[in-house]
Task: structure prediction
Amino acid sequence: MQAAPVRATAIPSVSVALRAVESLLMSGGQRTARRNAWTSVLEDRRRAKDRVEALRVFEESVATRTSQSGETVATRTS
Result:
């Protein structure tokens, strides 16, 4: 009994397949513009997460300081 033949090449991932279709449908400049736009979107999302985290840390530090001194501070809720 013989073993089944082994594939020499891997099956391409979805992202590789999408890039191949993209290269057929779009010119080089459009591809670059789309990738730059997507990179900007991802960077904006990262900065937004960082802002939210910085605000949370700031509000916690203010609450900690004011609770130690006995004052009350209204914090923003969103």
Observations:
- The chain has a mean pLDDT of 82.
